[in-house]
Specification:
Elements (H helix, E strand, L loop, with lengths): L2 E5 L9 H10 L25 E8 L3 E8 L8 H5 L5 E3 L5 E3 L9 H5 L6 E3 L4 E3 L5 H4 L6 H5 L5 E5 H10 L3 E3 L11 E5 L24 H34 L1
Parallel strand pairs: 1-10
Antiparallel strand pairs: 1-8, 2-3, 4-5, 6-7, 9-10
């Protein structure tokens, strides 16, 4: 069963309850940050901030503040999973894409592959971290932490097909249902107030055609194949060496 979370900017008041709930549930430390003139704090995703609310001031006949929630998009066809050489980056049947820390070697191929610039490398642990879509909570019958904390229903969650159908019936424009290169996402954006502006750089600037950094995936895949080949060769040589040593000792 595939699920989806939706951010509705029309209803967001910028309270950042979602940020706080995310940190608490994932037990991430409080970060030391500096003042940002647009009030976005921290200014971008970090290994300890899996989601942020971006504040943007626009002029459209009058000055407006608009909010955009950023987090992993949980792609249908996630480039980060394809790029990961160890299987640390995993996609579940529910649609969540998450990192298995015990398998992460800190190669950062997922960082290069992600078209949304989401995974963040932590120099302290040597591993990559990002939003998990609260897959542990979903499997326990709970809402994602950020969705549960939202006081204005700017965040909604449910079975993906049902959520999309309901939003469309209510006249919402949806971003993420289908996208080139990633096949669509399990984090969606929906709006009535800002129709036609979700991909407008002046407003939200979500990519119309998400793509990895130019040349990143072919290079990653070639290197991954090379690493795998070297690992197999090393294993064979290691086995041959100890077989020879065993024969010598007889």
């Amino acid at each position: 069963m595939e699920y989806a979370s939706v951010f509705i900017p029309d209803r967001c008041i910028g309270c950042r309850a979602c940020q706080t709930a995310c940190k608490i549930w994932n037990q991430r430390p409080v970060e030391k940050t500096s003042f940002s003139p647009d009030f976005t704090n921290p200014p971008s995703l970090t290994p300890d901030s899996f989601t942020i609310i971006k504040f943007k001031e626009v002029f459209d006949g009058e000055v407006k503040w608009i909010m955009l929630k950023e987090q992993c998009m949980h792609c249908n066809d996630p480039p980060c999973v394809s790029a990961c050489p160890t299987g640390a980056m995993t996609k579940t049947e529910e649609g969540a894409v998450y990192v298995r820390p015990e398998k992460c070697i800190g190669c950062q191929y997922c960082v290069e592959a992600c078209p949304f610039d989401v995974p963040k490398y932590d120099e302290g642990s040597g591993k990559v971290y990002k939003c998990t879509m609260c897959i542990d909570r979903i499997r326990d019958g709970k809402l994602p932490a950020c969705v549960e904390a939202c006081p204005t229903q700017a965040l909604v969650f449910g079975k993906k097909d049902e959520v999309i159908q309901k939003l469309k019936s209510e006249g919402f424009e949806i971003y993420g249902e289908r996208l080139p290169n990633v096949g669509g996402t399990h984090w969606l954006y929906a709006t009535k107030e800002f129709k036609g502006k979700l991909t407008d750089p002046k407003y939200f600037g979500l990519p119309e055609s998400p793509a990895a950094k130019e040349g990143a995936l072919p290079a990653i895949r070639e290197f991954g194949v090379g690493v795998a080949g070297l690992a197999i060769l090393a294993s064979l040589l290691h086995a041959a060496y100890w077989r020879a040593k065993k024969e010598e000792s007889k």
